[in-house]
Amino acid sequence: MKYCVILLTLLALTSCGGRKGELRIKGEIKGLTADLTMYSRDGVVQGIDTLHVRQGKIDWSCKYEKEGGCLTIVYPTYSTLTVFCNSGDVILIEGDAKQLGSVKVKGNVDNEAYTSLRMAINSGNSIDKDSLIDDFINTHPESPATRLLQLERLSKQQPKSLRQGEELPNFRIVTRKGDTITNDTLKGKYSLLAFWANWRGGTGTLNTRIRRLRRQTQKPLVCVSYNMDVNTNIVDYIERTDSITWHSCNYPEIFQAELPSRLGIRSVPYFILSDTANHIIATGSDWKKDIEPSLNKHLITPQNK
User: Fold this and answer.
1) Eight-state DSSP code of residue 287
2) Architecture of domain 160-304 in CATH?
3) How far are the Cα atoms of 1, 10, 12, 18, 209 from residue 4, in angstroms, in the given order?
4) How far apart (Å, rounded) are the C-alpha atoms in residues 276 and 253?
């Protein structure tokens, strides 16, 4: 009898939690038919991984030894779900594909607290969103969700350095070929940073305009294609079909990646044109209205217009 009690206790414990050194995500999002994409800034997964969905059901696991990790799950709509995880966690996801903003995440105190916050924000209560977030930050100062909320607030602040005439902020990005580009790399040349994603559309027109610009100007010009697609196969295809031969990078964290966060970029396409001293000449999402007049003034000679 004593051994049966011990066995039952062990079974109860293992049914509630996972094994140390492993992370598991399971559950169901009713009506969801497409696989989900995942990425992590802190090493939960390397690069991009796939969360397979079978009739709405999810069951995924990986080796994971660390504490305090954060996963971003990307839905087919390109909205995201944040999951906080530790070694040994079994994360449970429950919801409906028709209401992705209300998907619940359980499995540790950080997920459950953050889910409660999301539900409160989505409930339409009279308390405003900022007040709810302030209260969460004050009551959960050590939570990884608090750090995430603080970063999100910072990323939404439009920095003064994006104004015309200001110097391009310090940055560092790595191209798909492994080259490192910084604002120091661009000094002495005009530069065009083009932020885009296939899910937004219009990429063919964007790349055609950049290709034409490179033919029209005789001045030193560096073009950088900054892509935000999660599916690298799509990026490969577009780069081949659109003949992208200029610098190209891919950061699937979308607007949460370091550079767009620091620059306050919240939509694509978006362009930043700078002069040879790294001073911003023009910025904006409308090529013809925001960028083309400055191109005609600084880069394109009359005979090439």
Assistant:
1) I
2) 3-Layer(aba) Sandwich (3.40)
3) 5, 10, 12, 22, 73
4) 29
